[in-house]
Write a structure and sequence with these properties.
Blueprint (H helix, E strand, L loop, with lengths): L7 E4 H15 L6 H15 L4 H12 L9 H8 L3 H8 L6 H11 L6 H13 L1 H22 L4 H8 L21 H19 L1 H10 L7 H11 L2 H7 L4 H5 L3 H4 L1 E4 L1 H16 L8 H16 L3 H12 L10 H4 L7 H7 L2 H10 L8 H6 L20 H16 L10 H9 L8 H20 L1
Antiparallel strand pairs: 1-2
Helix pairs in contact: 2-3, 2-10, 3-9, 3-10, 8-9, 9-10, 10-11, 16-18, 17-18, 17-23, 17-25, 23-24
Length: 455
């Protein structure tokens, strides 16, 4: 490894805006959903006269509103026997009415299951639907607020995310707050979300109709009036439809405020998104953090400097960010994957590399994320790299990733003892994994075990 990027003053929006595309994937939304919501919500905020400091917090509430979205994906698959990505994407069209709720449940539950299994799932959802919805939304919103705090955002931003699904008339979730008891950022974010979903699908008139039809129920009437005023501007819609909206959004004053992005803050951002990644599946809970620990142990044995190790830690924390775009119906499947399902799994390093490559300050870790399933013999994926085409950083993360996969529970088998995992990996040396990296892992594990043995 030749260079390590130093800390810099930069608009933090550049970093978080790009990472928000990962949230779009796991929420089943078209790319740029959070960015478009931010554009809509900021115009509403300015229309109602929010102060500049409030607009800054609103900006990040909108951009990061879906921070907790991965945390209920596994539960959705379990309850509805369905693909969580499609379920989440379609759920945003639900208007809250009972007839539409019934149609939604019948059209989204157990489509790939047997008839008896599907019938039981539908009965369970219809019987306990209210409590199920509250549970799913509570998990999502509270987890999102927790991660926002990890990222050093204000309590107003955290609470804006936590109360995203509350409605003006008190019929929202999870706490059924109403009126001005709901934070203003949450009220604006929910409306902005509905505007984007219906505008993206069916155009501006559909978005306007949907917002107006929910005035006084979902939405504060004064905010609906503010949106009507915003919607009269042709430029608002023209900009909203642009593919480069992200660049235009960053010209807004809150996005231009540079925060000190030092090494510690980058670590916090990476660790926070690792929480988002690992929340996707109960079988990968803590995976990114453990891979980071094992990668660091290997790097220390090999002789990496402190700066190099800090860089590698961020690469390890974010190596699986592309899994946010894979359905839990595949990630958590207990049986053998079909060829089509394995084809979907093989896309996750591609997604990881694509997301990180578009973030200037993380671009140099993108190849590690994209290559951690490559093999020295060229039989890995996604690009069939081999030998020296795979750099040392990627080889380290690959060894750490395989070791954690073997020693953690998986949907298709329980965790292996360390000795058994190392035995299996020893047979992979030279073909799949790097000999020096594997030897460094063994030495590091022996050192960790020595104090325990002495005790």
């Amino acid at each position: 490894m030749d260079t390590v990027k130093t800390s810099t003053d930069m608009p933090i929006a550049d970093l978080l805006g790009a990472l928000s595309f990962a949230l779009d994937m796991t929420e089943g939304q078209p790319r740029g959903h959070c960015v478009r919501c931010c554009w809509v919500g900021m115009h509403i905020g300015r229309q109602i006269g929010l102060k500049q400091c409030e607009l800054s917090d609103l900006f990040y509430t909108l951009l990061l509103k879906d921070l907790g979205c991965s945390s209920n994906a596994a539960r959705i698959c379990q309850l509805y026997l369905t693909d969580d990505l499609t379920f989440k994407g379609d759920f945003k069209y639900w208007d809250g009415s009972l007839p539409q709720a019934l149609r939604f449940v019948l059209s989204h539950t157990g489509l790939q299951a047997g008839l008896a299994e599907r019938f039981r799932a539908i009965v369970n959802v219809l019987k306990d639907g209210g409590e199920i919805a509250r549970e799913l939304i509570e998990t999502r919103c509270f987890r999102g607020a927790e991660i926002a705090r990890m990222m050093r955002f204000s309590e107003d931003v955290a609470l804006g995310i936590q109360n995203l699904d509350e409605r003006w008339d008190g019929t929202g979730q999870p706490a059924q707050k109403s009126g001005t008891g709901i934070p203003i950022f949450s009220r604006i974010a929910l409306m902005s979300q509905v505007v984007d979903v219906f505008h993206t699908a069916n155009g501006r008139e559909a978005a306007l109709r949907e917002v107006e039809s929910r005035s006084g129920t979902w939405f504060q009437p004064d905010l609906v009036e503010a949106f009507r005023s915003v919607a009269e501007e042709e430029e608002f819609w023209d900009q909203l439809a642009r593919k480069d909206l992200q660049k235009i959004l960053y010209r807004l004053e809150p996005a231009q405020r540079a925060r000190k992005v030092d090494e510690g803050y980058l670590d916090d951002i990476a660790a926070a998104f690792a929480k988002v990644i690992d929340s996707k599946s109960p079988f990968t809970s803590g995976h990114s953090e453990r891979v980071t620990v094992f990668s660091d142990l290997i790097a220390e044995e090999i002789g990496y400097s402190p700066d190099q190790r800090a860089w590698l830690k961020r690469a390890a924390l974010l190596h699986d960010i592309g899994k946010l775009g894979i359905s839990n119906s595949i990630l958590d499947k207990p049986g053998k994957l079909t060829d089509a399902e394995f084809g979907e799994i093989r896309k996750h390093p591609v997604y990881s590399q694509s997301i990180l490559a578009n973030i200037e300050i993380f671009a140099d870790i993108a190849p590690v994320a994209g290559g951690h399933h490559e093999r020295l013999d060229g039989k890995g994926y996604p690009n069939g790299l081999k030998g020296d085409e795979i750099d040392l950083n990627t080889r380290i993360v690959t060894v750490a990733d395989i070791f954690d996969a073997l020693t953690a529970d998986r949907p298709y088998r329980p965790a292996m003892p360390i000795a058994k995992a190392l035995e299996i990996m020893a047979d992979m040396v030279g073909s799949a994994i790097d000999p020096a990296c594997f030897a460094a892992l063994r030495r590091a594990l022996e050192k960790v075990d020595q104090p325990a043995a002495a005790a």
